[in-house]
């Protein structure tokens, strides 16, 4: 596991910059937090998921593709409902423009 202090030293950058990148990688599910109990200090460490970056990215990409597929299915289903029920819905009301109305 890598600790923030080690990353700041190796990358020669500030803690806020390292945390910003760590948080981005965690949001993409490429990194996981590791408890630092073994080092006796209780620090949080970070390591790549699945052993390497390419494998971690493959899982992240597959999850994103599955999510997009489910969204597409939902959109298609909603579109079918709108088309089926569309003729039964009243026409939308158009607001009349009067004095003082923004254009």
Automatic annotation (TrEMBL):
Coiled coil: 61-88
Keyword check for Nuclease: no
InterPro entries from the UniProt entry: WH-like_DNA-bd_sf, WH_DNA-bd_sf
Keywords: Coiled coil
Protein's UniProt name: Transcription regulator
Organism: mine drainage metagenome
């Amino acid at each position: 596991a890598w600790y923030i202090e080690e990353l700041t030293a190796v990358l020669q950058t500030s803690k806020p910059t390292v945390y910003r990148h760590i948080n981005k990688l965690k949001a993409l599910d490429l990194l996981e937090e590791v408890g630092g109990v073994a080092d006796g200090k209780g620090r949080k460490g970070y390591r790549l998921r699945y052993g390497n970056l390419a494998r971690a990215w493959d899982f992240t990409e597959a999850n994103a593709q599955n999510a997009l597929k489910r969204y597409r299915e939902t959109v298609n289903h909603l579109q079918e409902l709108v088309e089926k029920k569309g003729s039964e819905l009243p026409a939308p009301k158009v607001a009349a423009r009067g004095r003082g109305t923004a254009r």
